[in-house]
Amino acid sequence: MTSTGRLLDVLPVLRDDFRVEVLFTVAGHSAFDDGVDELLARIQTRPVPWDQVVQTRFDLAISASENGELHRIRAPLLLLPHGAGFHKFVVSTSDSGPSVSGLARERLVRQGRVVPSALALSHPDQLALLERVCPEAVPRAVVAGDPCYDRILASRRLRERYREALGVAGRQLVVVTSTWGPESLLGRHPELPARLLAELPVDEYAVAAVLHPNVWHGHSRWQTRSWLATAREAGLILVPPAEGWRAALVAADLVVGDHGSVTFYGAALGAPVLLASDGGAQVVPGTPLAELRSFAPRLDISRPLRAQVSEVVAGHEPSRHAALAAAAFAEPGRSAHLLRELMYHLMDLSPPPRAPRVDPVPLPSTRRPQVTAFQVFTDLADAPVPEVRLHRFAAVLDDGTDRGTGLRRQHLAVDLDDPDGRLVESASVVFRRVADVLSWLEGTEPDEILRRCPGCRIVAAVDGGGRCLLRLREGPAVMAIPRHAPRDSVDPTVFASAVYAWVAAGRPLDDLRPDFRTRLGSAEVTVALAPPGAGAA
Which of 44, 150, 231, 414 gives the lowest tally of CB atoms within 10 Å of its CB? Predict the structure, then answer.
């Protein structure tokens, strides 16, 4: 899947040219082939069986992986890297020890013959590495930049569009990225996505996970979703393996990663980076990734995570990351042009006169799931007007800590639709999202919820107008309406938690009339309490 994605970045340089027909084939079998046929079918390509390919002459073959029996192809071969350069060691099939991924000599040279006709590099510094590991291939090397990096650069203007599509507007987006294997982020700290969601305030942060396709397809997509099921219920944006990761990087405010290429692309884009695993001996010394590893801050899994996230963002030095990008990617913005010139040269054709275009990546298809269970930490103040401060966290952990808020009074607020019935039964506040709050109040459901949930003190319903109608177990029904707040700026279910915190502290409900103030993280909203028949906000 990784190499397939890289090919799809490059092949648009051939569009509009009726002289060239593109066919696809899968060379050999791999444990990570799952998903490739499905992807090729989705984009409506014309696959050709490998057995037929090796019996047919072609004018050009392009691969983004050196694996497979590429030496059997009867065509000039252009070999592309499938990551951010060549920075990882892999187990070699030869007796010479580990090989550099993408530059394995036993793959590049077969029976004394260099297999690729051209080997694309993203930076001239990689020539020295190639000279060390496979000197025979140096004459075939061509510096052509990085088409994936260029597409990321072309996508930066759409950052706010990506954030809207992901559902993270108004929040800091933390992208957790893991390569594959035991030294990866998930291999070392599989609980990290859930912990981030439990320790970062829901209304101030969002968390997305970008996993290497080998995680998805080496273990199966079902298994991957199963492993992250609790995190997904807590709001994790699980980015699909084929596309979406670059949009997430453009949208990110912080990358928590490892020694994979996605972490490096995030750093090259200028995002702060926090390393949860550095790859150990897998990282090739002297590469830009090794340089990133030398100065990037390390995540301490034994410490609270929120403080570390804040420290890394506040202490970020963009100039150091800019130097990394310059050391890894030559000719930024020109890779499509350089690769097209090379491809047409290998086909012995003149390129079309029109310059190739670099398209931004598409809008992500995955949106932040709605969180349905919260641990709510609160504090109260009286002057100059009644005020309730709140911080909400996904109800993943219940360890009694204040999550770094300084607020120790807490309660559980849960959507009636939450799949975990134990949380609903334990909640102090149970809420519903309905079309019309007044119709809901006139029905039997409020009384049924209070009867079934003995710990519930307030049951509430919210509608699309921003209204929150509260039914107190001991007290009247009341409408909470935000004043002068843009719709969707604050989740109205928080008003129920604010009222609960007030009355649970023994304060009279009337003290909140006619207006009180809620502080939800950095957001501040004045709320009016009115009879149930009050108008919409």
Answer: 44
